[in-house]
Write a structure and sequence with these properties.
alpha/beta, two-stranded parallel sheet, 23% strand
């Protein structure tokens, strides 16, 4: 059994992930900004933690993370305002990594996207640019930490039913959010995924097999 804290606990992927972790006996805490979402995440099997990670400093985040074995970052500004995108998808994310290290929550799984990185290729005048820049900075910072990290790069997200199968690498296509949730659960349980970036699409290989190092 592990104690896992999910940041962005009311997001679509997070709400699919929580029941998977709870079903295998993990204790799940779901960080939510809106207290009105408490019943939803608790119905999924998590303990609701109402907190605004954008406004918490590193010490406050470390206090939030204390006692947990691992952190899953599944939050995001959701596009739109570039300033808020940088504040959440870069700055708050990086603070959370440093806080996880300080709190001893050594396992850290980052939900990024297929093609993220300094060579993302998104033009500066594109509305996606701030997000691409923010994720590149956050992913790079994570790779330099002492955490047991895994970066996940799912391709275009859909609401299709889960298949339980993915393909790693290749060209970006699409993948069901439910399968992304299953990938997160799989890598949390598989030490061979530590220190790796795994980009994936819907595919033909069973998830547990596909993510093995």
């Amino acid at each position: 059994m592990s104690r896992i804290l999910i940041i962005g606990g009311h997001g679509k992927v997070a709400r699919l992930l929580t029941p998977l972790l709870a079903a295998r006996g993990d204790e799940v805490s779901a960080v939510i900004r809106n207290a009105e979402h408490t019943a939803d995440v608790e119905g999924d099997g998590a303990t609701a933690v109402v907190a605004d990670v954008e406004s918490l400093d590193r010490a406050e985040l470390a206090a939030l993370f204390a006692g947990h074995d691992g952190i899953v970052w599944a939050a995001g500004a959701g596009g739109g305002d570039p300033e808020r995108t940088y504040a959440i998808d870069r700055d708050a994310t990086i603070r959370s990594m440093d806080a996880a290290d300080a709190a001893g929550a050594k396992r850290y799984v980052m939900v990024s996207y297929f093609g993220a990185g300094p060579d993302h290729g998104v033009p500066a005048d594109n509305s996606f640019f701030a997000y691409a820049e923010a994720k590149a900075a956050a992913d790079e910072h994570l790779q330099q930490t002492r955490l047991d990290w895994t970066i996940l790069g799912p391709s275009g997200l859909t609401l299709d039913p889960p298949t339980g199968r993915i393909d790693v690498g290749g060209e970006s296509r699409t993948v069901a959010r439910a399968d992304v949730a299953a990938v997160i659960a799989a890598v949390l349980a598989d030490p061979s995924t530590v220190g790796r970036t795994i980009e994936f699409n819907a595919g033909s290989t069973p998830i547990a097999e596909a993510v093995k190092g």
